[in-house]
Amino acid sequence: PSRLPGLPHPVMGDVPYNGAQAIHSETNNTPTKASPCIGEDSRYVLSKILGKDETQIDEFIKSKVVEMSIG
């Protein structure tokens, strides 16, 4: 068992995290979550960042252009 603090991960459980690899004086280096699973954030990225609507996203998934894993 690790003594490092853990970040919750939807597949791997608590993932040990030993702190930031670099310190930036004007940035908060504290992670908010563990690394995502492949496809976990696809819908968010496509809609919120790239501006795609639900119909387009569903077509991307159906055509296997993108992968969804969780949620």
Task: Report what the structure shows.
With 71 residues, the protein is α+β, with helices and mostly antiparallel strands. The protein is 24% helix and 11% strand. It contains two helices and two strands, in the order E-E-H-H. The chain has helices spanning 42-49, 54-62, and strands spanning 6-9, 13-16. Strands 1-2 form a two-stranded antiparallel ribbon. A hairpin with a 3-residue loop joins strand 1 (6-9) and strand 2 (13-16). The protein is elongated and about 45 Å long. The mean pLDDT is 84.
Q: Give the integer mean of the pLDDT values.
A: 84
What are the secondary-structure elements, in order, as H or E?
A: EEHH
Percentage of β-strand residues: 5-15%
The proportion of residues forming helix, as a percent range, comes to 10-25%
Tally of individual helices: 2
Structural Rg: 16 Å
**What profile does the largest beta sheet have?**
2 strands, antiparallel
- Structural class assignment: alpha+beta
Shape: elongated
Q: What assembly state would you assign to the polypeptide chains in this entry? A: single chain
Low-confidence stretches: none
In whole angstroms, the N-to-C terminal distance is: 29 Å
Strand order of the largest sheet: 1-2
Strand runs, count: 2
How does the SSE layout of this entry go?
Layout: E1 6-9, E2 13-16, H1 42-49, H2 54-62
Antiparallel strand pairs: 1-2
In short:
This protein has helices spanning 42-49, 54-62; strands at 6-9, 13-16. It has two helices and two strands.
